[in-house]
Input
Amino acid sequence: MTASHHRLSAALLSSALGLTAVPAFAQDVIWARYGDIDSLDPHRATSTLSLQIWDQIYDTLLAFDMDANPVPNMAESWEASEDGLTYRFTLHEGILCHDGSPFTAEDVRFTIDRAFGETPSLTRTSWGPIESVEVIDDLIFEITLETPFAAFLTFLADPFSSMICSGIDTDTFGSSTAIGTGPFKLVSWARGSEIVLESFDGFRNLGQAAENTGAPGFDRLLVRTIPEAQTRLAALRTGTVHIAEPPFDDIDAIRTEGLLDIVIAENTGQNVFWQFTTSRPPFDDIRARQAVALATDPAMAIEIIYGDLSQREWCPISRGVFGNDQDFCEALGYAHDPARARELVAELGFGPGNPLRTTMLVWTGGNRHMLAEIFQAQLAEANIQAEIEIMDIGTMNARVRAENEDVNNTTPGTFDMMTWSWFDPDILFQLWHSPGAYSGYQSPELDALLQETRTTIEPEARLEAVHAVIEYLMTNAVHIGLYTPGWEWVFAVRPEIEGLQVGPFVRPNFLDVTVAQ
Amino acid sequence: MLVFLAQRLFAALITIWIATIAVTLLIHLVPGDPVRIMFGGFQTTEAELEAIRTRLGLDQPIWRQYLMFLGRLAEGDLGRSIVGNQPVLDILLERLPATLALTLASLAVAIVVGMGLGFLAAVKRGTWIDSTAMILAIVGVSMPHFWLGLLLLFLFSVTLGWLPVAGGDWRSLILPALTLGLATAAVLARMTRSAMIDVLDQDFVRTARAKGLPGTLVLSRHVLRSGLVPISAMLGMQFAYLMGGAIVVENVFAWNGLGRLAIQAVLARDYPLIQGFILFFATIVALASVVIDLLYAVLDPRIRYAK
Output
């Protein structure tokens, strides 16, 4: 074989494997996930896979503690005006961007302007009604809101509000470059294959829930995409990777075997729920929506499919999120009652020989197809014949909206197992305030209640406002909580990795991680 | 020969032209509004989505969109990926070496194993060697890539620890190439056996033997060359089959080629990338067919002189 042949072979292989030059002394932690990020730009994606990586590259003005409360982080302090419209923040001194430049109030303004700019952030509305950002000096800035916004400070702890350094290259930012102030800096992103992150020596932990106050204790974090669950498990077993989501069917065996640790995320904020196409029959009638809720038994279904890994969630917002109250929601909820469901279906003119026909939309992965089959059997007992359609979550998001907006569609309306993870009950505003995330159920009364949850700042009063929305959504069978958590919340970890914490909202934190030799 | 080459190239161009129509129609045939799928965030207004449709030219009549697409294509522009905002052609070229490495390695596995088994079975027709080879071929054809890949992974990586699971070094190519190649080897084994048996029964073989030529010489010089003609035609189809099979195998072994790219593009609803992939794939397969046809003509002069 000639030298050129050798070079060609090497080029083919290194390209295939997404390899980069690795110093022999580098201490790596390798984390395998089923999919890749959509973008390195925190304004251009919404997936959990993406925000878990933003969390490593960027930092946020506030941070969540392990109980999901927002605490000071890059911003060491803030003051709110009495009318709740103006917030004056003071940044910690000496925060460094990955390009070596100091992070200042100008960078905060740059980030916020960008989120509201020509191609706005996909989660723009969750920033709240920001009117202006005024830079007072390098460390002090003032944000003015048009109206009070209760979720404002909480949002500033979420990766969607990641702080971007203004020195970015606008042509390559998000696709091949990223400059933040987080614990790791980007080395490379081989799309679909591997993200290489390097510990950032200049990082200071100013508020994240970890004991380590400086840079991570290992050299590089390699985030690999291994779509097939059994391949991920094989990679874990052989030590090819250190951390990965295992196949659900193998979790009991892994626990029994004891070779890998299982880490289960808490306070995920994930809410899996029923929602309905309300623009046409049958679900334009509340009785059809109630019948689905009464006919299905989520507790039994998740016990069969997930065992103790997931739990019944009665509320439209999940445990760990402000306003979640299981007793309150259960009292309003739809306990499993197939007889009552049959009565409602009969009132609508359907019965054993003439079932109510509909389609249940479900998103792929996590054994959800099996869950859907159990629900399908439960619905059949109430004379509801539901076909199952499975698709990826992005397609399902668009499909649900299209189902609601398609005025010419005469087929029976669909319902779907939808899901969101959010840090604040403001998710209910995003989902249900007109025009809504899915153009689904809308009413002026609900809009007013939702607006109240945004503009009420005082916690007790806001709790009341949030409960009023929950009551409305549940009484009208608009948003029926099913279970939590719902996706990507289980991690199998090799024993040589110590100190991995999964923070609120499924955010792995590597600051305290050490690698045993 | 030039006429033959021109005919084949014309056929390839027709195939690619049909692919251009298919990819233009694609964006209109998929369920749901692609712009909403790709850009719909919280509380996105219809006006914002309409502006994006205008920017992407999706508000134009379909025939105009097709002409615009052809215009860009003539300049070698396949558009930009929506997710990564990179030129589609650059992304495809970046992944091509990985898929070519896998496909060619699989083809090598298929040729060595498949043709070897088929040849052996034909020469030892009616013996236990023949039966065993054909049973192996049936097993190979029947086993899905996905399943075979996982079995090989557990045997060679997890149990024996001989080969890496995914990524690392050149040894990472072995399991995906075996997985992809063995199914094709099974098809080739059956084809080779049948082709060789046909040739072995021909008069010229009997004549060669009657002239006293050694058996190995008869097999290598006369039987093999004649038998290769129909098999080489098969290789063209098998190449396309292997490229298609790479989509599944690359996913199982986390091999970062075009197949995985296609799945990622579909999951991310990145339509320019999906369109680019289909067109690129069709072009490669069409050109590979031309090469195989030429090889076919070299092996059998009757073909290149046929009207």
Q: What stands out?
A: The two ends of chain A are 38 Å apart (CA to CA). Chain A touches chain B through 53 residues (CB under 8 Å). The longest strand of chain A covers residues 356-363. Chain A has a mean pLDDT of 91.
